[in-house]
Amino acid sequence: MENLIRVMNLEPLELQQVMRTGDGFYIGRQLGDIGFNAFLGRPSPGPFGVSESWRKFRKLSFSDRREVVRFARAANVRLRDFLKKG
After folding, report:
1. What distances in angstroms separate CA 54 from CA 5, 22, 23, 34, one per listed residue?
2. Rounded CA separation 38/18 (Å)
3. Is-contact 27 38, C-beta < 8 A?
4. Predicted TM-score (pTM) of this structure
5. What is the pLDDT confidence band of residue 58, given thresholds at 50, 70 and 90?
């Protein structure tokens, strides 16, 4: 989960889990919190947006990339929202 959070550019939030809602928004569960109370919104292509996510993903080892994909599927996170080459 840590690498998925890094690829999504969410490191400073100290999140335990992230998931995508049915309407396409992202929410997170912070350390020590009960439930997904952190509203994260949708990905944006800002200065550290999707192209930065792609760079971080490419730096991961093959096994770490597989782990990111596995966690993303389990959390209904659409990696294509974050990994657009920009």
Report:
1. 13, 24, 24, 31
2. 9
3. yes
4. 0.70
5. confident
